[in-house]
Predict the structure.
Amino acid sequence: MGMLYYHNSENPIQIEDLTLAHLKVVIATKLRRNESFTLSWRHPEGDPVGRSTIWLHPSIPLRFVFEDPVVPELRPEWINAMANSANSSGGITLLTADMIGSGEYHEGHGTEQDGTGA
């Protein structure tokens, strides 16, 4: 399980390593361009039901921590789906591999099929 540390929070956002690796590429690209945006995700099982959103800006420190020391092979369609989401008014909706493969995400729309991703 990977972790995304946001600003000076002591409590990281836990994200599967593979998902975090794809997300890191999209976030780094946006921040390198000096673009601000939001990141939204559904709370994982075991946490209170709901979703969260954070504001990402080049001046806000981020730290990506991966459990696996080996860099995984990245899937371009996954990066493209997150990048399209990042460029929407709703910001990045955290997508997992099963969402891409199951059709839960409609590429080009920037949100999940059920509309909860904004």
Remarks:
- DSSP finds three helices and six strands in the chain.
